[in-house]
Amino acid sequence: MTNSGEERLHELRSRLDTIAEELADLGRAKLVEALESGSGAPEAEERRLSRARRAVLKAASLLGPDEGLYTEDEAWG
User: Fold this and answer.
1) Contact 52, 75 (CB under 8 A)
2) In this predicted model, what pLDDT tens digit does every residue of 41-66 receive, in sequence order?
3) In whole angstroms, what separates CA 18 from the centre of its chain?
4) In 3D, which of 21, 73, 30 has the Cα closest to residue 52?
5) DSSP string of 16-58, one letter each residue
6) pLDDT value at position 46?
7) Using an 8 Å Cβ cutoff, are 26 and 45 in contact?
8) Contact at 8 Å (CB) between 77 and 58?
């Protein structure tokens, strides 16, 4: 693969990693919000966000290894 192609893959992996982090942050925020309001944990929404995060991590892992990104085990977990 050319250097340009490798750079594009690196950029895509980095963007997917950022999206996964944002999904994790959103899931945590939703849990805290539910606990603070006394409505209990929003299990369905948290599961949905967790599944989306794992799918994004899996996509990143399929593009190849890169420093700073999650491992393939985390993507499948």
Assistant:
1) no
2) 677 888 899 999 999 999 999 987 75
3) 7
4) 21
5) HHHHHHHHHHHHHHHHHHHHHHTS---HHHHHHHHHHHHHHHH
6) 85
7) no
8) no
* 3-37 vs 43-62: helix crossing angle, rounded to 10: 170
The count of C-alpha atoms lying within 13 angstroms of the C-alpha of 17, restricted to the half-sphere facing its C-beta, is 17
**pLDDT of 68 over the 60 cut:** no
Q: 67's torsion region: left (phi>0), alpha (psi -120 to 50) or beta?
A: beta
Q: What is the DSSP letter of 69?
A: S
Q: Where are the domains of the chain?
A: 3-76
Mean pLDDT within 17-22: 96
Q: Read off the pTM.
A: 0.74
